Every structure is written in structure tokens, then in C-alpha cells.
Amino acid sequence: MFMAFAWSSCPTAPMHWIEFREWVLLVLGEPVLFLPLLFLFCFFVLWALSLDRSTALIVSLAFSLCGSLLYSPLATSVLDHWLQRQLPLASELSVGSTPPPVAVLLGRGPEIGLVSTTAAVASLQRGEIQAIYVSGDQRSTADRLVALGAPPSHVSGDSCARTTWENASLTAAWLRQHHPGSPVLLITDPWQLSRASLLFLRQGLSVIPQPVIPVLSARSHNRIAWREALALTLYKIQGRV
User: Fold this and answer.
1) For the chain, what are the domain ranges?
2) May I ask the CATH architecture of the domain 85-238?
3) Mean pLDDT confidence for 5-13
4) What contacts 131, CB < 8 A, 6 or more positions away?
5) For 50-83, what is each residue's pLDDT tens digit?
6) CB atoms < 10 A from the CB of 69, how many?
7) Strand, helix or coil at 151?
8) 96-130 pLDDT tens trace
9) SS3 letters across 79-109
């Protein structure tokens, strides 16, 4: 029997800049796309500066080889460390506080959704949280929470948020209406956790960061680390965190 839960679907206007951002991130995240473009860019710039062809080729190749280091395990490790250092210490809060937290899950794809939903239901069954809110994801994520054992009355969410900034603002509005004063148990991957925690804090919420680590290939790990490092840097430039 189908069991309903509270879910909001929002008709929204297209955000073309997101499509452009995704295209840029796709190119930057794939060495087979980025490195040849880097080589060609360097070569034509050097050639335009009247460097002879042989020298331009050698220097461009050297730039491309240096660029390949961006996709190395060392680069991934450095990015992981830097992102972890950005996690705000002021957001630490005891899970045993009153009122108990509301777990918030963010739309991050199936691999991360698999571990975040499992962690949220486990916290709910241990009595550590009072409800679960899914922000900016498909309704199927809420269906999975119910399938794992969460009572439908304890599950809510939306498919409206399209950015982490909207995740924070829409969740804050929902919490003020349904669970005023409750802290947020923010469950997401460790790469997004710093940026998301800072944004939720900007909404005046108390945040308990809980990282969940999905099973990723080395390539996917590097890609998501770079994506989050670039996103956090952009948000810092914009003054959002």
C-alpha cells in the first residue's frame, strides 16, 4: 500500500547559467577533454606571441603535463585536506540537545543518496533525530527512506532547490514553519559538507555536520573534490560563505 509523505514540487524557470556551469565542470573534470584544450590554448597563445613553432609545441606540452597533475592522487589528497579545513568549528553541537535535530539530506546523486538515506534512517531509529527533510532531490529519495523503515509522517522534502544556496534557504523556511528552533543534522558527502554547513549557518540555523562517504572510483573522487573546491571558492568570492 502506498504511504504518502509531505513533498513539494516546484515549477521553476530554467537557469541557463547552471547548464553552462555543468558544461564547464564537465570539461575541467575530464582530463581527456581539458588537457588537449589546454595544449591548444597554450600553443596558439605562444604562436601569437611570435614564438617559433617548435618552442611553442614544447612549452605547450610542458603546460599540459603540469596540468595532468591536477588529476593525480596527490591533488585529490590536498583538496580533501583543504575542504576539511573549511568546516566551521562553530557548527559543532551535541546530538543530545533539545529539541532533537532534524536530519537534512541534499540532492547529490544516487551513490551519495544511497549512504545518506541509510545514515538518516539509522539516526531516526536510534531516536537521535525527530524528522528527515530531503532538499533538492527526486521523490525517489524519500521513497527509499520509507522503504528503509522511516515512518512517512517523519519524512518531508522538496524537488525545488537547484543549488546548495537554495537548499539552505528553502530548508530554513520549512524548519521555521514545522520545527522552529531545531538544529540541523546535515548529512552529506565530506566534500560538500563544509560549503553546505557554512550556507546553513548563514540562514541562522544550528548545524551538526555528519559526513557520509560513498564508494567512488579514484577518478570520481578527484572530480567531486575539484568540483567542491571550485564551488566553495566561488561562493567565497561572492560573499555567500
Assistant:
1) 16-69, 85-238
2) 3-Layer(aba) Sandwich (3.40)
3) 74
4) 102, 103, 124, 154, 155, 156, 178, 179
5) 889 999 999 999 999 999 999 999 999 999 999 9
6) 9
7) coil
8) 557 899 999 999 989 999 999 999 999 999 999 99
9) HHHHHHHCCCHHHCCCCCCCCCCEEEEECCC
